[in-house]
Amino acid sequence: MRGYFVSFEGPDGAGKSTVLKEVLNQIGLELKTQYLVTREPGGSKIAEKIRDIILDPANDKMDNKTEALLYAASRSQHVEEIIRPALKEGKVVFSDRYVDSSLAYQGAGRDLGIQKVKQINDFATDKLDPDLTFFLDLDPEVGLKRIEKLRPGQEDRLEQENLAFHKKVYAGFLKVKETYPERFVTVDATQPIDQVVAQVIATLKQRMPELF
């Protein structure tokens, strides 16, 4: 069986990590193949060190291009060390964020241009795209309020950006989603988490029945 690559995207506070964890709590034993859960930025020892640099609030003078290139560098290491080997072994890879986040955050949010950031990441990943991407759809203002409530005073450097930035990021996600409709599935993240999880599981079983 070939490997499958599934990514979870969405604005800050949409609940990607929580949803992914609960999905696998429910279907992990059903899957006919091994799976790997990972995240971006990060996912490997080197990539996690780059993550620390990117998200550290103390690095408030970081240039936008530097930020985009650091994300791409972290991703390149992540893909070559973790994701691609797992796919070659026939595993299902579930990633909390991937290239689409860079297109939205740096391409749209930082005004670097979605296409330009896409080119950087095509080089970094050798154009490795997910088979399926879940977009957890949530108004960015609601997402930021969730984060403030869950982790008051512990927001990372990007979470600390103003609402205008996060609205540009959200608009970027919508544009990316429209560009790749064949792999994107939108899930309303305002629903109770059990409904979000149920929709994700139903979609996985519909799109990838051979895994169950």
TrEMBL record:
NCBIfam families: DTMP_kinase (TIGR00041)
Originating species: Lactobacillus crispatus
Name the UniProt record assigns to this protein: Thymidylate kinase
Residues annotated to bind ATP: 10-17
PANTHER family per record: THYMIDYLATE KINASE, UMP-CMP KINASE 2, MITOCHONDRIAL
Family: Belongs to the thymidylate kinase family.
One GO term describing the cellular component: cytosol
Gene: tmk
Function: Phosphorylation of dTMP to form dTDP in both de novo and salvage pathways of dTTP synthesis.
UniProt domain Thymidylate kinase-like: residue ranges: 8-199
Reactions it catalyzes: dTMP + ATP = dTDP + ADP
GO term, biological process aspect, one: dTDP biosynthetic process
